[in-house]
Amino acid sequence: MSRQCARKPLAIPAVLHPLMLLRLEQVLALVQIPKSTWYDGMALGRYPLPVRTSARSVAWRAADIQKLIESFTSTTDIDGNIAKAIDAKAAKRALLGVV
Protein backbone atom coordinates (compact mmCIF):
# COMPACT_ATOMS: atom_id res chain seq x y z
CA MET A 1 0.00 0.00 0.00
CA SER A 2 1.44 3.37 -0.94
CA ARG A 3 1.49 6.33 1.37
CA GLN A 4 0.89 9.44 -0.62
CA CYS A 5 1.06 12.72 1.20
CA ALA A 6 -1.01 15.68 0.14
CA ARG A 7 1.10 18.12 -1.82
CA LYS A 8 1.41 21.68 -0.65
CA PRO A 9 -0.07 24.15 -3.11
CA LEU A 10 2.48 25.82 -5.34
CA ALA A 11 2.94 29.51 -4.69
CA ILE A 12 2.37 31.96 -7.50
CA PRO A 13 5.36 34.28 -7.81
CA ALA A 14 4.67 38.00 -7.43
CA VAL A 15 6.73 38.76 -10.53
CA LEU A 16 6.94 36.39 -13.48
CA HIS A 17 10.36 36.26 -15.10
CA PRO A 18 10.01 35.34 -18.80
CA LEU A 19 12.37 32.37 -18.42
CA MET A 20 10.51 30.96 -15.42
CA LEU A 21 8.68 27.65 -15.79
CA LEU A 22 5.22 27.28 -14.28
CA ARG A 23 3.43 24.12 -13.23
CA LEU A 24 -0.17 23.50 -14.31
CA GLU A 25 -1.54 24.48 -10.90
CA GLN A 26 0.19 27.87 -11.15
CA VAL A 27 -0.96 28.42 -14.73
CA LEU A 28 -4.57 27.68 -13.85
CA ALA A 29 -4.38 30.03 -10.85
CA LEU A 30 -3.22 32.82 -13.17
CA VAL A 31 -5.60 32.16 -16.04
CA GLN A 32 -8.62 31.20 -13.89
CA ILE A 33 -10.12 28.47 -16.06
CA PRO A 34 -10.88 24.80 -15.34
CA LYS A 35 -8.28 22.16 -16.12
CA SER A 36 -10.47 20.51 -18.76
CA THR A 37 -10.93 23.85 -20.55
CA TRP A 38 -7.18 24.37 -20.49
CA TYR A 39 -6.50 20.98 -22.07
CA ASP A 40 -9.25 21.54 -24.67
CA GLY A 41 -7.70 24.92 -25.52
CA MET A 42 -4.26 23.36 -25.91
CA ALA A 43 -5.70 20.75 -28.29
CA LEU A 44 -7.35 23.52 -30.35
CA GLY A 45 -4.20 25.67 -30.38
CA ARG A 46 -5.68 28.47 -28.26
CA TYR A 47 -3.35 27.95 -25.30
CA PRO A 48 0.40 27.31 -25.27
CA LEU A 49 1.79 23.81 -25.13
CA PRO A 50 4.04 22.75 -22.24
CA VAL A 51 7.72 21.90 -22.38
CA ARG A 52 8.94 18.59 -21.02
CA THR A 53 11.11 19.09 -17.94
CA SER A 54 11.69 15.40 -17.25
CA ALA A 55 10.35 12.03 -18.31
CA ARG A 56 7.19 12.50 -16.23
CA SER A 57 6.92 16.25 -15.81
CA VAL A 58 5.91 19.23 -17.91
CA ALA A 59 5.76 22.99 -17.33
CA TRP A 60 4.79 26.12 -19.22
CA ARG A 61 7.04 29.06 -20.04
CA ALA A 62 6.03 32.15 -18.08
CA ALA A 63 6.58 34.26 -21.21
CA ASP A 64 3.97 32.20 -23.09
CA ILE A 65 1.47 32.56 -20.25
CA GLN A 66 2.10 36.31 -20.04
CA LYS A 67 1.44 36.66 -23.78
CA LEU A 68 -1.77 34.66 -23.38
CA ILE A 69 -3.00 36.83 -20.50
CA GLU A 70 -2.12 40.00 -22.43
CA SER A 71 -4.12 38.69 -25.40
CA PHE A 72 -7.27 38.54 -23.28
CA THR A 73 -9.40 41.61 -23.74
CA SER A 74 -12.46 43.04 -22.08
CA THR A 75 -16.03 41.83 -22.43
CA THR A 76 -16.28 43.64 -25.77
CA ASP A 77 -15.03 40.43 -27.38
CA ILE A 78 -18.16 38.68 -26.15
CA ASP A 79 -21.00 38.35 -28.63
CA GLY A 80 -23.41 41.28 -28.28
CA ASN A 81 -26.36 39.05 -27.41
CA ILE A 82 -24.40 37.32 -24.68
CA ALA A 83 -23.26 40.68 -23.27
CA LYS A 84 -26.89 41.88 -23.22
CA ALA A 85 -27.97 38.69 -21.44
CA ILE A 86 -25.23 39.12 -18.85
CA ASP A 87 -26.22 42.76 -18.31
CA ALA A 88 -29.93 41.85 -18.03
CA LYS A 89 -29.17 39.13 -15.49
CA ALA A 90 -27.03 41.52 -13.43
CA ALA A 91 -29.78 44.18 -13.56
CA LYS A 92 -32.38 41.65 -12.43
CA ARG A 93 -30.18 40.53 -9.53
CA ALA A 94 -29.62 44.17 -8.50
CA LEU A 95 -33.36 44.83 -8.64
CA LEU A 96 -34.05 41.83 -6.42
CA GLY A 97 -31.24 42.81 -4.06
CA VAL A 98 -29.34 39.59 -4.67
CA VAL A 99 -25.59 39.94 -4.50
Order of strands across the biggest sheet? 1-3-2
Strand content: 5-15%
SSE string: EHHEEHH
Shape: extended
Percentage of residues in helical conformation: 40-55%
The N- and C-terminal alpha carbons lie at a distance of 48 Å
| Low-pLDDT regions | none
Cα Rg: 18 Å
Per DSSP E runs of 2 or more residues, the count of β-strands stands at 3
Instruction: Give a short account of the largest sheet.
Output: 3 strands, antiparallel
Which class of secondary structure composition applies to the elements? mainly alpha
Annotation field: number of helices: 4
The residue-averaged pLDDT reads 82
Structure description:
There is one protein chain. With 99 residues, this protein is mainly alpha-helical. The chain has four helices and three strands. Strands 1-3-2 form a three-stranded antiparallel β-sheet.
In short:
With 99 residues, this protein is mainly α. It has four helices and three strands. The protein has helices spanning 24-31, 35-44, 62-71, 80-96, and strands at residues 21-22, 51-54, 57-61.
